[in-house]
Design goal:
By secondary structure, the chain is an alpha+beta fold. It contains seven helices and ten strands.
Length: 304
Amino acid sequence: MEQSFKGGTFINRYKITGTLKTISPLHIGNGDMIADEKRLPQSDERKKEKAHLFTTVITGCDKRAYIPGSTLKGNLRSWLTQIFCDLSLACVNTSKRALDLKKFAEELKDKKTKIGEQLKMTEYLFGSTVNAGKLEFWDAPMAAPPNIPAGHSPLAYSRFDSDRGTLIMKSVAIDPVTGTAAKNKLFNYEVVPRGAAFSLTVSGQNLTNAEMGMLLFALDGFNSFIWPVTLGGMGSVGFGRFTFNMKQISYLNGSNYSAWMEGALREGHAGYTKLPLLSEEEQEEYIEKFKSRFISRIKKGECK
């Protein structure tokens, strides 16, 4: 199957669902800093001090923490680029790269048939200045708040908000000269603690077997011990680590399209609902086809 664009002739449609579970604190900030006397009261009532401020995480309309789809997309693309840029399967998404592609596209009469020769696999999947990405990363809501064991030390989960699924942590700035804690530089920030589960959904259209394999490979990167995919801030100190468990892969293509359409006319479903499921054996097949692709590039000396 040749690579094609998202907006071209319909070939297939995929929907992947799974669960991301935090194994370290997660902080995806929304840029706000607030005071909440119930969670972080003033340190000394006698001095009539104001309640301490803390930076907050991004939350949805239900006031519960979630992972934005843009965060998932950006971090997965960056992770793939770091691994495969030397194998001609990915490239750094710099402003120069964007301008070069745009200039090349403007010089072509038949852009859709020729511009593809200049694109890397990650650009087909995630998009560039000359094409829309084939993948769509949905916002990942918190499916279950962290499970706090009975009798657990209250200090570790102090100021825990069960509605938001978060707690408040403290840290200090480090003096670059002395290497010790800087004076009067204590700050507070909100995090999702370990044990919280998020529902992940990724959809895609007109994917080749190799592209599907690359996506599955990237999602499994959350489980890597050596070079994991991380999300949010403070990754250098171990924040933003997850485990990923696949739930199911549903798909639509030429072989089941007619049956799905008949069901849609009877039951009124559309989009990504009630798509047939992909077996675990087929999932493994896609990963193997992706592996064989970049191995063949190494053998041909196509690495940059």
